[in-house]
Amino acid sequence: MHHVLSLLAGSLFLLGTACQTSQMPSGAEALGNHRWVLTELDGQPVTDTARRNAASLQFFTKENRVAGSGGCNRITGSYERSGKDGLKFSRMASTRMACPGPNLETPFLRALDRVDGFSIAQGVLTLRQGQIVLARFQATPPGQ
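User: That's the sequence. What structure does it adopt?
Assistant: Structure tokens below.
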């Protein structure tokens, strides 16, 4: 009986671990599963993340497209993956609405232009140029 209980407990542990792992895949697979809300840009925290049009990205992995918000204007473009962690944005464009007050849009788009790599850990997407961290994003479900 003890052997059966040990086997059952081990199976439940493995099942729980598998479920946790599937909630947050890593690498290219994880890019397309979330809306990524900007939380840090060029080493500075971004605090206005609760707004619906907060600076964010969403990856459409089948088409290698990316869309989102610069914080005011909508942005769209393409991306290319290479190797394990290579990432390059191209043909980025944005709408041109008048945006009140200071905003992150121009530095955000400039940072995207410099990206050559990424990593994902614990629901955080980090975009880099070499070893330099350009931006960090928090995962949220698409549509939020």
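Confidence is low (pLDDT under 50) at residues 1-25.
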